[in-house]
Design a protein that fits this description.
The chain is of the alpha+beta class. It is built from eleven helices and 27 strands. A hairpin with a 6-residue loop joins strand 22 and strand 23. The longest helix is centred in the C-terminal third of the chain and has 26 residues.
Length: 511
């Protein structure tokens, strides 16, 4: 989910899930992640969560899986609806109070609703922690608040034991949420969130649950791994393994890349390819994070728009974008051909103010004109600056492919029509999914390809079916960005290992 992230992904609030715990084996803590069909009237807005795949299809493997399920606990196979929202069960306190939580690698705190949450409707729809009923509860009381990309909570810290699978973490700081404003958490079937990010982004400097699992010797190896089932109706919803890796969950070998910045599980990513062709956007490198708390896959608007254009995803028509192409397109082309540095072009045409490293909207520069013109003028300037910067990226890419100038401008106008809607989602024609191009991401020198059936989310069947692009735009400026968020769309296709001991992330084809 990502503490402090702004406007992350629309949480696909139609598909929220249940989970049960299974017993550990040989130092592994297995958390089966379950999927639940979406509520019929949920729509495709405000949701972010997970999915995954389930084992071999032959009879012997099925029998083995059944035997393991009977040995490890009550693992229930639920239907896969939209491949969104996966959560598991934990226990807090003595005796144990059960909660369903999102295991979120994009944040670092554990929180659940408090019995003292009186003013937020969301709390009345979920299990609430009752401190007075726990013999192991210890008072803390320090206030805390967390803002996610799609919602916020506030409350105070408490201390208690936390049970995950069959291991019990002692003296764990967590947040009792006394306020959960808005609809995001009200419609969610999960109660809270268990963050698996680094302590650097932990609110209140609380030690994350995972750190205590390692420190207290509850796992053999400082590694955890995710397996998401993206196949409707096939087995359990998914599994997170604390302390190791299940070889039945992947094919081949993992490709590992080092964590480049602690906080999120961030690493370097290379070129993005559409149908095998380079987009050029990340040819010199981009930053990415693996985030189990995000349903879709997010990236900079300039490249997400190109992807959505290629797959025929229809978003909102941006008049600012078309205005930039009409008024400044030729000047941008001329400057690129004259080898003007791309980052300086929008400032040279008067749409942005160049700060030496990145274009900055002139709306960010206070002036008498801005004060007199009002806020609307500033927002317009910002939109024009952003549109210009995107146009430069697109035009540069097309010129590199030796396109004529007329064709370049026509293509850029088409891209303008594919800009995502304000909520970030873009729809596609379900009948065209089979003909859509593969989208590949270069990580550790290897291309990780997503096929159309992996990056398109389908809701419903027959004429009433709706198909949604799994790509949504989010612009994070330097020095933190551009930043890609590889959510469940990517992690469902590629089994993901989070190696805390060696500070690296690994990906292998899911099995």
């Amino acid at each position: 989910m990502g503490t402090g992230r702004v406007a992350l992904v629309l949480l696909l609030a139609t598909a929220l899930l249940q989970a049960l715990l299974a017993a550990p084996a040989e130092g592994l803590v297995r958390i089966p992640l379950k999927k639940r069909p979406a509520d019929g009237n949920g729509g495709l807005h405000d949701a972010r969560r997970r999915g995954f795949l389930g084992g071999s299809s032959n009879a012997a493997a099925a029998a083995l899986n059944k035997a393991e399920a009977e040995e490890e606990g009550d693992i229930v196979a639920l239907k896969n609806y939209l491949n969104a929202q996966y959560y598991g069960e934990i226990g807090i306190g003595t005796p144990q109070q059960r909660f369903t939580v999102i295991f979120d690698t994009g944040s670092s705190n554990l929180w659940v609703p408090s019995s003292k949450c009186y003013l937020s409707m969301a709390c009345y729809f979920h299990e609430r922690y009752k401190a007075g009923q726990s013999n192991s509860y210890k008072k803390n009381g320090k206030p805390a608040s967390i803002r996610y990309g799609t919602g916020a909570i506030s409350g105070y810290f408490s201390l208690d034991s936390v049970k995950i699978g069959d291991v019990v973490v002692s003296n764990q700081d967590f947040i009792e949420a006394t306020r959960e404003p808005g609809i995001t958490f009200m419609v969610a079937k999960f109660d809270g969130i268990l963050g698996l990010g680094f302590k650097e982004i932990s609110v209140g400097a609380a030690v994350p649950v995972w750190y205590n699992m390692v420190k207290q010797g509850l796992v053999d190896d400082p590694v955890f791994s995710f397996w998401f089932n993206r196949h409707a109706g096939e087995g359990q919803g998914g599994e997170i393994v604390f302390g190791g890796i299940d070889p039945n969950h992947y094919k081949g070998n993992h490709t590992y890349v080092p964590v480049t910045r602690k906080g999120y599980w961030q690493f370097d990513m290379g070129d993005v390819l559409i149908g095998g062709k380079s987009t050029g956007f990340c040819a010199s490198g981009c930053a990415a994070i693996a985030d189990s708390g995000t349903s879709l896959l997010t990236g900079p608007t300039a490249i997400i728009t190109q992807i959505n254009e290629k797959i025929g995803a229809a978003g909102v028509v941006s008049q600012e974008c078309k205005a930039v192409v009409s008024q400044y397109g030729q000047r941008i082309i001329d400057q690129l051909l004259a080898e003007t540095h791309p980052s300086k072009i929008c400032s040279s045409v008067g749409l942005c103010t160049f700060d030496g490293a990145h274009g900055v909207s002139s709306a960010g520069i206070r002036s008498v004109v801005d004060d007199e013109a009002g806020e609307s003028n500033g927002l317009f300037n910002e939109a024009m600056c952003n549109a210009c910067e995107m146009a430069v990226v697109w035009i540069q890419n097309q010129l590199a492919q030796n396109q004529t100038q007329d064709l370049v401008l026509q293509y850029i106008n088409q891209l303008c029509e594919r800009l995502p809607s304000p909520m970030g989602e873009s729809s596609v024609d379900c009948n065209r999914v089979a003909s859509m191009p593969d989208i590949a991401f270069t990580i550790g020198g290897r291309k990780f390809t997503l096929k159309p059936e992996q990056y398109i989310l389908k809701e419903g069947e027959g004429p009433a079916a709706q198909c949604i692009s799994g790509f949504t735009a989010m612009d994070i400026p330097p020095p933190r960005g551009p930043l890609w968020i590889l959510g469940d769309i990517f992690m469902g296709a590629y089994h993901t290992v989070f190696d805390y001991g060696n500070l690296k992330v690994g990906f292998a084809e899911a099995a």
